[in-house]
Design goal:
The modification 4-aspartylphosphate is found at residue 52. This protein has helices spanning 10-22, 34-44, 61-72, 87-94, 113-124, 132-143, 151-161, 166-173, 177-190, 201-213; strands at 2-6, 26-31, 48-52, 78-82, 102-106, 128-130. It is of the alpha/beta class.
Amino acid sequence: MRVTVAEDSVLVRDGIVGVLTRFSHTVVGAVGDAPALLAAVRADRPDLVLTDVRMPAGPESGLRAAVELRRADPGLPVLVLSQVVAPVAAEELLDTGDGAGIGYLLKDRVADVAGFVAAVERVGAGGTVLDPEVVARLVRRRRDPVARLSPREREVLDLMAQGLSNAEVAAALVVSDAAVNKHVRSVFTKLDLPADVPGHRRVLAVLAWLRSAG
């Protein structure tokens, strides 16, 4: 396979390149940040992208770049490596291309070279390789609908739980009423509370928040 590697640590990056080369794969690009990864993929059109989650542009910049690449080309196989689980971005990645050709491995779980290369090849062939901890975190997220909310939406819901009106929430967050209305609608959508749901949606949203907090 032709592989593009993105990893900000030069030693780790060179090690990955060496391993892939030893197993007869061609590394067409080896870069150290997310913007360079996007440019390299556009230029080289690899068969697979292997990227670290955390790079200089931000704590999840490599994973965000992977999501962007998959949205542009859902058939592009992507394997991400990480020290920790980033469940929100991981879920976004899995939602691209029907989840095929995706891998997410924690670095300390890559126990041997042969297993690592096998995971690379499985993803490159359209398979899915997920670390067990990633699976566990995603299952917990799907069980808790509040976990779907963005940080700003959680702030809005927190203030709603304190009894604030939309106008009072806007004043507390120093944003416009329109912005708060948009966030509230998004909260209702993500908590599966359509307009015709029985009961007061605002109360039901706050109940969901209390269950999550408890």
